[in-house]
Amino acid sequence: MKALFTRGRVARIAAATGALSLTLTVAACGAGSGSNPLQNGGSSASAAPADTVVIGSANFPESQIVAEIYAGAINGAGAKASTKPNIGSREVYIKALTEGSIDVVPDYSGNLLTYFDKSATQVSADDIAKALPGKLPSGLKALNASKAEDKDAMVVTKATAEKYSLKSIEDMGKVCDQLTIGGPPEFQERAYGLPGLKSKYNCTPKAFEPYSDGGGPVTQKALLEDKVQVADIFTTTPAIKDNDLVVLEDPKNNFIAQQVLPVIKDGKLSSQATDALNKVSAQLTTDDLINLNRMVSGDAKTSPKDAAAQWLKQKGITQ
Protein backbone atom coordinates (compact mmCIF):
# COMPACT_ATOMS: atom_id res chain seq x y z
CA MET A 1 0.00 0.00 0.00
CA LYS A 2 1.37 3.41 -0.91
CA ALA A 3 2.18 6.07 1.64
CA LEU A 4 -0.55 8.47 2.63
CA PHE A 5 0.05 12.18 3.00
CA THR A 6 -2.11 14.63 4.87
CA ARG A 7 -3.03 17.91 3.36
CA GLY A 8 -5.35 20.40 4.77
CA ARG A 9 -7.57 22.98 3.40
CA VAL A 10 -10.66 24.68 4.56
CA ALA A 11 -11.23 25.06 8.11
CA ARG A 12 -11.12 21.52 9.01
CA ILE A 13 -10.64 19.64 12.23
CA ALA A 14 -7.46 17.68 11.66
CA ALA A 15 -4.61 16.76 13.86
CA ALA A 16 -2.74 14.07 12.09
CA THR A 17 0.31 13.62 9.99
CA GLY A 18 2.01 10.40 9.10
CA ALA A 19 2.45 7.61 6.63
CA LEU A 20 0.58 4.38 6.03
CA SER A 21 2.36 1.19 5.06
CA LEU A 22 0.64 -1.84 6.55
CA THR A 23 -0.21 0.16 9.63
CA LEU A 24 -1.00 3.81 10.18
CA THR A 25 1.05 6.07 12.38
CA VAL A 26 -0.61 9.34 13.22
CA ALA A 27 1.25 12.17 14.89
CA ALA A 28 -1.10 14.64 16.51
CA CYS A 29 -0.75 18.24 15.37
CA GLY A 30 -2.97 19.68 18.07
CA ALA A 31 -4.08 19.15 21.62
CA GLY A 32 -6.58 16.49 22.65
CA SER A 33 -10.28 16.88 22.07
CA GLY A 34 -10.90 17.79 25.68
CA SER A 35 -8.66 20.86 25.63
CA ASN A 36 -9.47 24.46 24.83
CA PRO A 37 -8.09 24.98 21.31
CA LEU A 38 -7.37 28.64 22.07
CA GLN A 39 -5.03 27.58 24.86
CA ASN A 40 -3.02 25.10 22.80
CA GLY A 41 0.74 25.17 22.86
CA GLY A 42 2.81 26.40 19.94
CA SER A 43 4.89 29.42 19.19
CA SER A 44 2.37 31.61 21.02
CA ALA A 45 1.71 29.65 24.18
CA SER A 46 1.71 32.83 26.25
CA ALA A 47 0.06 36.14 25.52
CA ALA A 48 1.79 38.09 22.76
CA PRO A 49 2.94 41.69 23.29
CA ALA A 50 0.47 44.35 22.21
CA ASP A 51 2.54 45.27 19.15
CA THR A 52 2.77 41.67 17.94
CA VAL A 53 0.41 40.41 15.22
CA VAL A 54 -1.00 37.03 16.31
CA ILE A 55 -1.69 34.71 13.41
CA GLY A 56 -4.01 31.78 14.03
CA SER A 57 -4.62 28.66 12.00
CA ALA A 58 -7.11 25.89 11.68
CA ASN A 59 -5.84 22.58 13.01
CA PHE A 60 -4.71 20.95 9.79
CA PRO A 61 -1.20 21.13 8.33
CA GLU A 62 -1.81 23.36 5.30
CA SER A 63 -3.41 26.08 7.40
CA GLN A 64 -0.54 25.86 9.87
CA ILE A 65 2.01 26.17 7.06
CA VAL A 66 0.35 29.24 5.57
CA ALA A 67 0.05 30.83 9.03
CA GLU A 68 3.80 30.33 9.52
CA ILE A 69 4.45 31.84 6.07
CA TYR A 70 2.39 34.89 7.06
CA ALA A 71 4.27 35.23 10.34
CA GLY A 72 7.66 34.82 8.69
CA ALA A 73 6.84 37.42 6.05
CA ILE A 74 5.71 39.96 8.65
CA ASN A 75 8.77 39.36 10.81
CA GLY A 76 10.98 39.57 7.73
CA ALA A 77 9.47 42.96 6.90
CA GLY A 78 10.54 44.31 10.27
CA ALA A 79 7.22 44.06 12.10
CA LYS A 80 6.43 41.51 14.83
CA ALA A 81 4.30 38.38 14.46
CA SER A 82 3.72 35.13 16.31
CA THR A 83 1.48 32.14 15.61
CA LYS A 84 -1.31 30.41 17.48
CA PRO A 85 -1.83 27.12 15.62
CA ASN A 86 -4.48 24.41 15.81
CA ILE A 87 -7.40 26.62 16.77
CA GLY A 88 -10.04 24.47 15.08
CA SER A 89 -12.68 24.78 12.39
CA ARG A 90 -13.88 28.02 10.81
CA GLU A 91 -16.62 28.32 13.40
CA VAL A 92 -13.95 28.51 16.09
CA TYR A 93 -11.25 30.63 14.48
CA ILE A 94 -13.62 33.25 13.10
CA LYS A 95 -14.92 33.72 16.64
CA ALA A 96 -11.33 34.07 17.87
CA LEU A 97 -10.63 36.65 15.15
CA THR A 98 -13.80 38.58 15.92
CA GLU A 99 -13.08 38.62 19.65
CA GLY A 100 -9.46 39.66 19.12
CA SER A 101 -7.53 36.69 20.49
CA ILE A 102 -5.94 36.43 17.04
CA ASP A 103 -5.39 39.13 14.42
CA VAL A 104 -4.95 37.17 11.19
CA VAL A 105 -5.98 33.76 9.90
CA PRO A 106 -5.52 32.11 6.50
CA ASP A 107 -8.78 31.10 4.87
CA TYR A 108 -10.34 30.04 1.57
CA SER A 109 -12.41 32.53 -0.40
CA GLY A 110 -15.44 30.50 -1.45
CA ASN A 111 -16.08 28.79 1.86
CA LEU A 112 -15.51 32.07 3.68
CA LEU A 113 -18.17 33.73 1.53
CA THR A 114 -20.75 31.00 2.03
CA TYR A 115 -20.01 30.93 5.77
CA PHE A 116 -21.29 34.50 6.04
CA ASP A 117 -23.82 34.31 3.21
CA LYS A 118 -25.37 30.87 2.91
CA SER A 119 -27.43 32.04 -0.07
CA ALA A 120 -24.40 33.19 -2.08
CA THR A 121 -24.48 32.00 -5.69
CA GLN A 122 -21.02 33.09 -6.83
CA VAL A 123 -18.78 30.26 -8.02
CA SER A 124 -15.84 31.88 -9.91
CA ALA A 125 -12.77 33.32 -8.23
CA ASP A 126 -13.45 36.82 -9.58
CA ASP A 127 -17.12 36.85 -8.58
CA ILE A 128 -16.34 35.57 -5.10
CA ALA A 129 -13.62 38.22 -4.66
CA LYS A 130 -16.08 40.95 -5.59
CA ALA A 131 -18.82 39.67 -3.27
CA LEU A 132 -16.72 38.84 -0.21
CA PRO A 133 -15.97 42.35 1.18
CA GLY A 134 -19.65 43.18 1.46
CA LYS A 135 -20.43 40.00 3.37
CA LEU A 136 -17.74 40.11 6.05
CA PRO A 137 -18.92 41.44 9.41
CA SER A 138 -17.76 44.81 10.66
CA GLY A 139 -14.24 44.58 12.01
CA LEU A 140 -13.03 41.87 9.62
CA LYS A 141 -11.30 42.40 6.30
CA ALA A 142 -9.97 40.11 3.58
CA LEU A 143 -6.65 41.03 1.99
CA ASN A 144 -5.53 40.08 -1.52
CA ALA A 145 -6.26 36.49 -2.56
CA SER A 146 -3.46 34.31 -3.88
CA LYS A 147 -3.51 32.17 -7.02
CA ALA A 148 -3.16 29.16 -4.73
CA GLU A 149 -6.40 27.22 -4.53
CA ASP A 150 -7.38 24.24 -2.46
CA LYS A 151 -10.86 22.86 -2.97
CA ASP A 152 -12.89 20.09 -1.44
CA ALA A 153 -13.36 17.20 -3.85
CA MET A 154 -15.22 13.94 -4.00
CA VAL A 155 -12.48 11.33 -4.32
CA VAL A 156 -12.77 7.62 -5.03
CA THR A 157 -10.37 4.75 -5.63
CA LYS A 158 -9.78 3.63 -9.19
CA ALA A 159 -11.54 0.36 -8.34
CA THR A 160 -14.67 2.18 -7.17
CA ALA A 161 -14.60 4.46 -10.22
CA GLU A 162 -14.47 1.43 -12.51
CA LYS A 163 -17.10 -0.53 -10.57
CA TYR A 164 -19.68 2.26 -10.75
CA SER A 165 -18.48 3.98 -13.97
CA LEU A 166 -17.72 7.18 -12.10
CA LYS A 167 -16.12 10.19 -13.78
CA SER A 168 -18.17 12.95 -12.16
CA ILE A 169 -20.30 13.69 -9.13
CA GLU A 170 -23.22 13.57 -11.54
CA ASP A 171 -22.39 9.90 -12.17
CA MET A 172 -22.06 9.41 -8.43
CA GLY A 173 -25.56 10.78 -7.91
CA LYS A 174 -27.03 7.91 -9.90
CA VAL A 175 -25.62 5.32 -7.48
CA CYS A 176 -25.31 7.46 -4.37
CA ASP A 177 -27.64 5.26 -2.32
CA GLN A 178 -25.08 2.46 -2.67
CA LEU A 179 -22.16 4.54 -1.43
CA THR A 180 -20.88 5.60 1.98
CA ILE A 181 -19.25 9.02 2.06
CA GLY A 182 -16.49 9.88 4.52
CA GLY A 183 -15.62 13.43 5.53
CA PRO A 184 -15.29 15.89 8.40
CA PRO A 185 -18.28 16.15 10.76
CA GLU A 186 -19.25 19.61 9.48
CA PHE A 187 -19.61 18.22 5.94
CA GLN A 188 -23.06 17.01 7.00
CA GLU A 189 -24.33 20.58 7.38
CA ARG A 190 -22.23 22.93 5.27
CA ALA A 191 -23.74 24.17 2.02
CA TYR A 192 -21.17 22.39 -0.13
CA GLY A 193 -21.48 19.15 1.86
CA LEU A 194 -24.38 16.73 1.97
CA PRO A 195 -26.95 19.52 1.39
CA GLY A 196 -25.15 20.58 -1.79
CA LEU A 197 -24.78 17.03 -3.07
CA LYS A 198 -28.51 16.53 -2.52
CA SER A 199 -29.65 19.78 -4.17
CA LYS A 200 -27.26 19.77 -7.14
CA TYR A 201 -26.83 16.05 -7.85
CA ASN A 202 -29.77 14.38 -6.09
CA CYS A 203 -27.18 12.45 -4.10
CA THR A 204 -28.21 11.05 -0.73
CA PRO A 205 -25.57 8.52 0.37
CA LYS A 206 -26.26 5.17 1.96
CA ALA A 207 -24.38 6.46 5.01
CA PHE A 208 -22.00 9.18 6.15
CA GLU A 209 -18.92 8.46 8.25
CA PRO A 210 -17.39 11.45 10.10
CA TYR A 211 -13.60 11.64 10.37
CA SER A 212 -12.04 14.53 12.26
CA ASP A 213 -8.72 14.62 10.41
CA GLY A 214 -9.55 16.96 7.54
CA GLY A 215 -9.21 14.38 4.79
CA GLY A 216 -5.96 13.13 6.27
CA PRO A 217 -4.55 9.64 6.93
CA VAL A 218 -7.59 8.29 8.79
CA THR A 219 -9.97 9.35 6.03
CA GLN A 220 -7.59 8.09 3.34
CA LYS A 221 -7.18 4.74 5.11
CA ALA A 222 -10.96 4.32 5.26
CA LEU A 223 -11.18 5.04 1.54
CA LEU A 224 -8.38 2.68 0.55
CA GLU A 225 -9.84 -0.10 2.72
CA ASP A 226 -13.32 0.48 1.23
CA LYS A 227 -14.86 1.36 4.58
CA VAL A 228 -16.13 4.38 2.67
CA GLN A 229 -16.43 4.47 -1.10
CA VAL A 230 -16.19 8.26 -1.47
CA ALA A 231 -14.18 10.73 0.61
CA ASP A 232 -14.07 14.49 0.91
CA ILE A 233 -10.37 15.18 0.34
CA PHE A 234 -8.74 18.47 -0.55
CA THR A 235 -7.29 18.88 -4.03
CA THR A 236 -3.80 19.77 -2.79
CA THR A 237 -3.45 16.45 -0.98
CA PRO A 238 -0.34 14.62 -2.24
CA ALA A 239 -2.04 11.29 -1.42
CA ILE A 240 -4.36 11.71 -4.42
CA LYS A 241 -1.50 11.26 -6.87
CA ASP A 242 0.51 8.93 -4.66
CA ASN A 243 -2.35 6.44 -4.34
CA ASP A 244 -3.72 6.84 -7.87
CA LEU A 245 -7.04 8.14 -6.57
CA VAL A 246 -9.72 9.63 -8.81
CA VAL A 247 -11.07 13.16 -8.29
CA LEU A 248 -14.64 13.26 -9.60
CA GLU A 249 -15.51 16.16 -11.88
CA ASP A 250 -17.94 18.74 -10.51
CA PRO A 251 -19.90 20.07 -13.52
CA LYS A 252 -22.44 21.95 -11.40
CA ASN A 253 -19.80 23.70 -9.28
CA ASN A 254 -20.88 22.37 -5.91
CA PHE A 255 -17.31 23.06 -4.75
CA ILE A 256 -16.72 26.68 -5.66
CA ALA A 257 -13.46 28.60 -6.10
CA GLN A 258 -11.26 28.49 -3.00
CA GLN A 259 -8.33 30.90 -3.17
CA VAL A 260 -6.07 31.17 -0.13
CA LEU A 261 -6.19 34.63 1.44
CA PRO A 262 -5.52 36.34 4.77
CA VAL A 263 -8.48 37.48 6.86
CA ILE A 264 -7.52 40.17 9.35
CA LYS A 265 -8.83 42.11 12.32
CA ASP A 266 -9.35 45.49 10.68
CA GLY A 267 -7.25 48.27 12.19
CA LYS A 268 -4.78 45.97 13.95
CA LEU A 269 -2.12 45.57 11.25
CA SER A 270 0.39 48.20 10.21
CA SER A 271 0.84 48.99 6.52
CA GLN A 272 4.16 47.16 6.78
CA ALA A 273 2.45 43.96 7.95
CA THR A 274 -0.37 44.30 5.39
CA ASP A 275 2.12 44.74 2.55
CA ALA A 276 4.00 41.65 3.70
CA LEU A 277 0.85 39.53 3.58
CA ASN A 278 -0.08 40.84 0.14
CA LYS A 279 3.44 40.02 -1.05
CA VAL A 280 2.89 36.40 0.05
CA SER A 281 -0.43 36.24 -1.80
CA ALA A 282 1.21 37.57 -4.96
CA GLN A 283 3.58 34.57 -5.03
CA LEU A 284 1.78 31.62 -3.42
CA THR A 285 0.60 28.98 -5.94
CA THR A 286 -1.35 25.72 -5.85
CA ASP A 287 1.79 23.76 -6.68
CA ASP A 288 3.48 25.46 -3.74
CA LEU A 289 0.73 24.15 -1.45
CA ILE A 290 1.10 20.60 -2.73
CA ASN A 291 4.87 20.67 -2.27
CA LEU A 292 4.63 22.25 1.18
CA ASN A 293 2.03 19.69 2.26
CA ARG A 294 4.31 16.89 1.09
CA MET A 295 7.23 18.32 3.08
CA VAL A 296 5.21 18.55 6.29
CA SER A 297 2.97 15.49 6.06
CA GLY A 298 5.14 13.13 4.06
CA ASP A 299 8.26 11.19 4.91
CA ALA A 300 10.37 14.32 5.40
CA LYS A 301 8.21 15.39 8.35
CA THR A 302 9.40 18.98 8.12
CA SER A 303 7.77 21.27 10.68
CA PRO A 304 5.30 23.87 9.32
CA LYS A 305 7.62 26.64 10.54
CA ASP A 306 10.67 25.20 8.78
CA ALA A 307 8.73 24.51 5.58
CA ALA A 308 7.44 28.08 5.63
CA ALA A 309 10.94 29.46 6.16
CA GLN A 310 12.24 27.53 3.16
CA TRP A 311 9.43 28.81 0.95
CA LEU A 312 9.93 32.42 2.05
CA LYS A 313 13.65 32.21 1.29
CA GLN A 314 13.08 30.58 -2.10
CA LYS A 315 10.67 33.35 -3.08
CA GLY A 316 13.06 36.06 -1.95
CA ILE A 317 10.66 37.37 0.68
CA THR A 318 13.14 36.75 3.49
CA GLN A 319 16.90 36.33 3.56
Order of helices and strands: EEEHEHEHHEEHHEHEHEHEEHHH
What Rg is obtained from the alpha carbons, in whole angstroms? 19 Å
Low-confidence stretches: 1-46
Percent strand equals 5-15%
Oligomer: single chain
Shape: globular
Give structural notes.
This protein has 319 residues and is α/β, with parallel strands linked by helices. It is built from twelve helices and twelve strands. Strands 9-8-10-7-11 form a five-stranded mixed sheet. The chain has a three-stranded antiparallel sheet with strand order 5-12-6, with helices on both faces. A two-stranded antiparallel sheet has the order 1-2. α7 (194-201) links the parallel β8 and β9. The radius of gyration is 19 Å and the shape is globular. It starts with 15 loop residues before the first strand and ends in a 5-residue tail after the last helix.
SSE layout:
Layout: E1 16-17, E2 27-28, E3 53-56, H1 61-76, E4 81-84, H2 90-99, E5 104-108, H3 109-116, H4 125-131, E6 140-142, E7 152-156, H5 158-164, H6 169-174, E8 180-183, H7 194-201, E9 207-210, H8 217-224, E10 230-234, H9 238-242, E11 246-247, E12 260-265, H10 271-283, H11 286-297, H12 304-314
Parallel strand pairs: 3-4, 8-9, 8-10
Antiparallel strand pairs: 1-2, 5-12, 6-12, 7-10, 7-11
Helix pairs in contact: 1-10, 1-12, 11-12
